[in-house]
């Protein structure tokens, strides 16, 4: 596949990254169309390399009840729903109703609409209001909100459940001193400190694409 601009890592050597993406199996027509749409409209989707990691986490953990914070056009939601199988309950959330409408159409075409509940609004509020606990929560909201998203998610995650987050190296800026006004980088830095020092989590930050963090609730 062509490694489009919206999927490029800012810190991985270009040749290594192109090699990695060239290894990836082709996606079906719906996912391929979504990747094309995201590239043309600069929608910041996780892309197929990180999506496979997301899918693997669902499969090995056996997660069925899943909450996604920040779903955009639903690309990552489809990977979650397919990996979790026909008995899954996957909650899509996004603040933009136009995204939710577009995502709903893709869900029908991908054959997973029955396992996805679409919510429009603030993902943190929606998660706090949701009933019961989740097996897996995936965080991909605005980066300044990551510490608050983590605080909202922890009480809603079952023990042994997974909390996953994308963009945790944030173009490599997470490793640099940044001005106070760079609230996105500051949010990511605070989030990274929180997950590694938390006594309730076991965290690993993987330098795949823009950084992806996997945490297990203890
Ligand atoms: C990085 S994109 C999500 C991409 C998606 N997870 C994927 O990989 O296909 C972030 C999305 O989160 C939404 N968003 C940001 N902060 C939010 C919040 N607090 N509540 C709900 N949606 C939010 C934005 O509208 C945007 O569509």
Radius of gyration: 16 Å
Largest sheet: 7 strands, mixed
Small molecules bound in the structure, each named once: S-adenosylmethionine
**What's the mean pLDDT score?**
97
How much of the residues is beta strand, in percent? 15-25%
Low-confidence region ranges:
none
DSSP strand tally: 7
Order of helices and strands: HHHEHEHEHEHEHEE
What is the structural class?
Answer: alpha/beta
Task: Give the distance, in angstroms, between the N- and C-terminal Cα atoms.
Answer: 38 Å
Q: Strand sequence of the main sheet, in spatial order? A: 3-2-1-4-5-7-6
Shape assignment: globular
Helix share bin = 40-55%
Q: Which oligomerization state do the chains in this entry correspond to?
A: single chain
Per DSSP, the total helix count is: 8
Write up this protein:
The chain has 8 helices and 7 strands. The termini are far apart. Strands 3-2-1-4-5-7-6 form a 7-stranded mixed beta sheet, sandwiched between helices. By secondary structure, it is of the alpha/beta class. Helix 3 runs parallel beside helix 4 (75-84) and helix 6 runs parallel beside helix 7 (146-153). Strand 6 (201-206) and strand 7 (212-217) form a beta hairpin. The longest helix has 15 residues, at 47-61.
